[in-house]
């Protein structure tokens, strides 16, 4: 679950005076800075002092969700409703739990009831509805936008009925635009700017402008926004954490273990001092990023016994990955297998599947049966990883395809390369020849490594190589592989379907025979076979000479030459019948 709770800023600006309001404000301030355990402790004190403070129950539940304790949050919302049965805000809290549990219909019913009870004009309730609807899987993001627009719309209202917006309202409205995506990104940026007009030092608004830029693949701008947020408020931990997440993302223009360690240390300096387990986990993580894998393992193992289920997951991944990075695949397997068995299939997520797949791909055994078991498990976990990810990210899809290719699961690799291309095209990105080549070459090998050869896959390969030609017509590769794809369908070269592509390839490649020797042998061989079956002796000699020049012992030349000689050899005259002697 996304831990950025924009709605938690709301009462920072709106809280009234008095001891109780100040205590709630303390909890909200901790939530704003991502200090969930401290927020939980503060809000529990508020409830102990005033058991009918519904906002304390609600934000306590949000703190528990930040600590990945959904069951605890649900219990808090229920307890709050027992104390304040008419609380629309706590009704929204229960709707949030419904969404987390996958019951979108029940959630929507609770949200609409809470909105109706407050006539859509209560800022806390509106932000709570919009936040849940935007951030949680299965939420109605268009509904989130509608709720916030209704809150902020004062058209036709008397002055005393008009709603006065605060920065948190515009942040929540910006979030609604951001999660809707596409052309709404620009609207989100503008809306976050409105929040800054009301609160010039609001680091959350600036950080979220960075999220919009990152989603638009404006990575330099995103980093600049995250950095600006930390400069505006050096205690704003979530921005440091975004920078940390940016640099641990395994993409060629992002991944930097050194930068990741730097920003994780900065985050730790302002993180929640009450959350000891998190501090210990992050300390182990820093050792990992500094490639001190032994220290990461020892710190992680020391923290595991006292960790809750959430951190047991994270620590197991860290320890398993540390063993893998230091080259100890067997211990990595042991750690992750034990974790997977203990957690159970329903608790495993995409990160678990990804690491398990990588571990089993690295395992090697001299025993063929054991090696087959490793390969089978690696592919099974990879497929589960592929099925569990929700991000439409070309680079992630390419990583999956690369692993499938390495495991020689060529057809599946081709399909994931194709998915990556589809997402890039949807994002209006221009594809390169290599993008189409990756699809074609894997469909080709997927076709020719099965018996009988799969012509459907060959047709897909042929189509992909045609795209290579369209993108890069001055490159011989596309013509050659169209030739190969059609050669595989016409292995006797009698139909001539590969000939136009080989003709073009030969024309483009004979200028550097040494560089293109292997590919020219294949092209010349098809031409030789084609003219042999056409009984075109002149061209048979042309391609036989070309082949012999670069491959003196070519078996095809030898066989065809012998066959033609035998064919041309005059038949022996029939023996005269013996004459009977008289």
Automatic annotation (TrEMBL):
Residues 1-21 form the signal peptide. It holds the Pfam family TPR_16. The keyword Protein biosynthesis does not apply. It comes from the Bacteria. The keyword Repeat applies. Keywords: Repeat, Signal, TPR repeat. InterPro entries: TPR-like_helical_dom_sf, TPR_rpt, Ycf3. This is Uncharacterized protein. It comes from Chitinophaga arvensicola.
